[in-house]
Each structure stands twice: as structure tokens, then as C-alpha cells.
Specification:
Strand order of the largest sheet: 1-2-3-4-5-6
Number of helices: 1
Low-confidence stretches: none
Number of strands: 6
Strand content: 35-45%
Oligomer: single chain
Order of helices and strands: HEEEEEE
Helix content: 10-25%
Shape: elongated
């Protein structure tokens, strides 16, 4: 595996993450973007397979892992109030699978009771 995944794969993951946010009626603008990713190779201690691990750092943080078989897992911070529940917030969105058939979901948190 080379040190950088194909640009179209990264772009499809970024789009999928934004789409998960949009499903909630929220927007994080043009985040996450492919240009902000920095990749390193990570060796699985058991299988010795090499994956690529990318990291977004900026206003929001996130990760993208590209596995040797083409699967991906990505998570990106949202940190916005839940659109229908004042006691909750959208912590992050996640996507996984093999592009173009990515699945995803939101991760919610609850505000501490005062």
C-alpha cells in the first residue's frame, strides 16, 4: 500500500461524512476536506498488514483509516446542538465500508444535568 490513498476514495469519504451531517438537518460547510489530511502507515501487530491512517486537525478533528482490502472507517467531529433535542448534541459522524457503498451514522452526546 502506498503512503497516500487514491484522491477519489478520500473525496468520497469526505462527501459521505458531510452527507451524514446533512441527514440531521445540520451543516459543517465544506469540512472535512481531502487537502487537510496527513497520512501515516500503520502496521497491524497481529496480521502485519499495513493500513493508512489519516488525521484531520483544525477547527474539528477526525480520522480516516484505509485498510489493505479497500475498506475504510472515518470519524469526524461535529460538536453542534441536536436539531430536535435540547438535551443532546451531535458529537461526531462516522462512515465505513467499501466506497462507493459507504454506510454511516451519527454519534450523540448528552449535556450534563446542572
Amino acid at each position: 500500500m502506498s503512503g497516500v490513498p487514491p484522491a477519489e476514495l478520500v473525496a468520497s469519504v469526505c462527501t459521505a461524512l458531510r452527507n451524514e451531517v446533512a441527514k440531521l438537518g445540520l451543516s459543517i460547510g465544506d469540512e472535512p476536506g481531502p487537502a487537510a489530511l496527513v497520512f501515516t502507515e500503520v502496521v497491524d501487530p497481529y496480521s502485519q498488514e499495513v493500513s493508512l491512517s489519516g488525521c484531520w486537525q483544525g477547527q474539528r478533528a477526525g480520522t480516516l483509516t484505509v485498510f489493505p482490502d479497500g475498506r475504510v472507517f472515518a470519524e469526524y467531529q461535529v460538536l453542534l446542538p441536536h436539531p430536535q433535542d435540547a438535551q443532546r448534541y451531535v458529537e461526531a459522524v462516522q462512515v465505513w465500508g467499501r466506497p462507493p457503498a459507504l454506510r454511516g451514522e451519527a454519534v450523540f452526546g448528552e449535556f450534563a444535568a446542572s
